[in-house]
């Protein structure tokens, strides 16, 4: 209750801190005697800031005259009848007008369950407003440097280079390593198209190889078979949060003097032999798209332990411009920069990344527990030495009814998704295929279930019933 009360002499900043702390979206404004003087919501704060009020403005000067409250002893029926549907929380006062409790109307049952939603309940708004009010809203500002350093630390790497998205991170990493026309880069058949597109954008030739049946990640045996005199790099993709077998891949790379560019877009915090993905190869590339483990809306990051590679990526990211001589371009570069506004959100997201990983793992375990008796369901395996993380709860449906099940889930407005198509199955990539047997089977039977901070147990049970009824 203490976190719900904000003194009338407090500032907007004080109110914002309490709203963030209580996670209720509002505070009850009281005077020194505890009497209710108003209600301030997160929406109110945002509107006031957009009207050029600053965070140090006194609440007493901007309180709305009309607000809703209930009296101690009122029945739920009476309160519900008086309160508009859009009001999410109502203070309850005693006979002296002092706040003693609050009432939350029952949440409306969602008719549609999204595959994922970003959790923006930490310091995202405060950091974003701080960046906005600083006027450093482009690609320079304190949050850029902070996010790069702290995310690199999270990955156990020395350096981070923030980018505009995960695809540009991959392209930047490949280009900085000198990968270009005439070179071959080995990629897995089961991955999102960004992996292979980055290779093609670099002017190189992708070579698509099959994945392991159990891990769903690139098969080191197939990598070895596909190597030619033109091979310059391997791109292991830690698919759906599952780490690749990095020790074997590293041995192959060392033997043949190949670069490794890790695609970690779906695997923030995953580990192989207690070492975080992204820190194994020459460069690790991440995505911060809205449905990823942490988000900046759009955005990406390259992490590396090489100072030389770090310096080169920074130059290429910023139009190829010299860091010592302004507007002097040493080579043709790109505009792959992240904004300070995006990085501000990223810094807040990073503060709670471990909580997010724990929450997603619990959600995965709940799905597994409820569906364990269905023999045709096979969840993503936990493999020795590989600490997978849950990006999306992913499973295989080994009964030939994957598409029917997807249709039933979507018909009931549960946003399940099929796995990515195998690259070799698509005409534009088919000519680059080397091997694809396991990938095709996994791709055609895989489903990802709704995974996110707003998913309720009743929604999981709803999905379970549809899955059971479909078979």
Name its key features:
CBS-domain; alpha/beta; flat; 471 residues; four-stranded antiparallel beta sheet; Aspartate Aminotransferase, domain 1; 3 domains; Aspartate Aminotransferase, domain 2
Which helices and strands appear, and what pairs or packs with what?
Blueprint: E1 5-7, H1 12-22, E2 26-30, E3 36-41, H2 42-50, E4 70-71, H3 76-82, E5 90-93, E6 99-103, H4 124-134, H5 142-154, E7 159-163, H6 166-176, E8 184-188, H7 193-201, E9 205-209, H8 220-226, E10 231-234, H9 246-256, E11 259-263, E12 271-272, E13 275-276, E14 283-287, E15 300-304, H10 307-317, H11 340-351, H12 353-371, E16 377-379, E17 386-387, E18 393-397, H13 402-411, E19 417-418, H14 437-445, E20 446-449, H15 457-470
Parallel strand pairs: 1-2, 4-5, 8-9, 8-10, 10-11, 11-14
Antiparallel strand pairs: 2-3, 5-6, 7-15, 12-13, 12-17, 14-15, 16-18, 18-20, 19-20
Helix pairs in contact: 4-11, 5-11, 6-7, 6-10, 12-15, 13-15
